[in-house]
Amino acid sequence: MRKAKAISLTRKQRKELGRLSKSKRSEIRVAQRAQIILRAAEGCRNDEIGELLGIDRRTVATWRRSFLESGVEGILHDLPRGGRKPSARKKVAAEIIRKTNRERPKNATHWSTLTLAREVGTNSTMIHRVWKADGLKPHRVKTFKLSNDPHFTEKLLDAVKRFFRELTDKRIRRGVFTSFPKLEAEIMSYVDHYNSSPKSFTWTAKAKDIMAKVERARAVLISTKQNETLHQYTDT
Question: Comparing C-alpha atoms, which of 136, 158, 161 is closest to residue 149?
Fold first, then answer.
């Protein structure tokens, strides 16, 4: 069995460790570490200390080594856990927040913990922890209420049709696109330009004028059909 390094205490260190091991103000973990060092100074082996205090001998070895390196200060704080170093974790967290707020994944409207974890090279747990700490909820969207207007859907579709008509007339109809990505890029360019100074669609014609045009068109259509029928009878 490998022999642990011996610990020799100064009077000041022994006094401080005794206070920490018995003080009610000390954290239980710090008090236990102080007891480990006091027992080690008495010449006890790690396995003996572990059995006496009901802990693993590897835990005893860890705090023995920490005391030898940093003195009493070495047992007052928890040791860094394995994995990424604190500075590296901060950089990853900052990148998670930046991408969540300023970017979006390809072929999706928002990040999921899995897709963002793959993007920044971490795991889903890290993504969830950062989102929770920063209050980020990319999967949530703002809610809205539908109008009680029975013709709301028709009016919404009219606005959409008008938008696509303008897009077609201004960017697509006279353009030449040799691939789908180029067409997509042109559409997105128009959308970005439009969103930079958006204007609401408004009806400029009066309702009675619109209905009059509809009735005239309807009359022409009926007349055309009647003429076609008449010609059929005449031909036969």
Answer: 158
